[in-house]
């Protein structure tokens, strides 16, 4: 169980007596609590410019939106991971269960991808961030070809080879 405590602005960093009671109750049942101020989170979500978001969060002494913590905690609780596909027209995130093998991960795009799975081209997330493109990763030997037994890692950038 994951609880979310919506507190007032003055309590966003420290919590209050109500969120403290919730934290104590959650701890007793081995659950987790995210303390956040939904009004501020709403304002952050409305800002489109990354510089504006950073300035707004800096004013509130926030390192990241609480919504990000909520999403990470939810994924962890549900045992989920994300992998990416990156094409010319679209970059997309796909949600899978942690520990899935490449053919299972391919099935979330289309069931034919799993049925006709041949191989997967895989770039680790940090390599993609470091080299900034698939081509640069390929040139630097950071693109791998993986088979049916490959366990997909959180953040992998993947391209599936399949035949139906």
Q: Give the count of structural domains.
A: 2
Q: What's the CATH topology label of the largest domain?
A: Ubiquitin-like (UB roll)
What's the CATH architecture of the largest domain? Roll
Note poorly predicted spans: none
Structural account:
- The chain folds into two domains: 2-77, no CATH class; 80-162, Beta-grasp domain (Ubiquitin-like (UB roll)), CATH 3.10.20.30.
- It is globular and about 60 Å long.
- The relative contact order is 0.12.
- The strands form three sheets. It has a three-stranded antiparallel beta sheet. It has a two-stranded parallel ribbon with strand order 1-2.
- The chain has helices at residues 17-28, 38-46, 50-59, 66-78, 102-107, 111-115, 125-131, 134-139; strands at residues 2-6, 32-36, 80-86, 91-97, 117-123, 143-146, 157-162.
- It starts with a strand and ends with a strand.
- The protein is of the alpha+beta class.
- Helices cover 41% and strands 25% of the residues.
- It has eight helices and seven strands.
Question: What is this structure's SSE topology?
Answer:
Blueprint: E1 2-6, H1 17-28, E2 32-36, H2 38-46, H3 50-59, H4 66-78, E3 80-86, E4 91-97, H5 102-107, H6 111-115, E5 117-123, H7 125-131, H8 134-139, E6 143-146, E7 157-162
Parallel strand pairs: 1-2
Antiparallel strand pairs: 3-4, 5-6, 5-7
């Amino acid at each position: 169980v994951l609880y979310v405590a919506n507190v007032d602005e003055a309590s966003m960093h420290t919590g209050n007596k109500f969120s403290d009671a919730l934290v104590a109750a959650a701890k007793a049942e081995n659950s987790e609590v995210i303390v956040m101020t939904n009004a501020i989170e709403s304002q952050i979500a409305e800002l489109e410019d990354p510089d504006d978001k950073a300035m707004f969060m800096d004013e509130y002494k926030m390192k990241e939106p609480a919504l990000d913590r909520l999403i990470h905690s939810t994924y962890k609780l549900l045992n989920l991971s994300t992998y990416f596909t990156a094409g010319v027209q679209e970059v997309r995130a796909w949600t899978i269960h942690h520990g899935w093998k490449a053919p299972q991960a391919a099935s979330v795009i289309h069931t034919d991808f799993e049925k006709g799975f041949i191989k997967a081209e895989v770039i680790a997330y940090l390599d993609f961030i470091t080299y900034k493109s698939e081509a640069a990763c390929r040139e630097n030997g950071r693109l791998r070809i993986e088979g049916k037994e490959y366990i997909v890692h959180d953040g992998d950038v993947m391209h599936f080879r399949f035949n139906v």
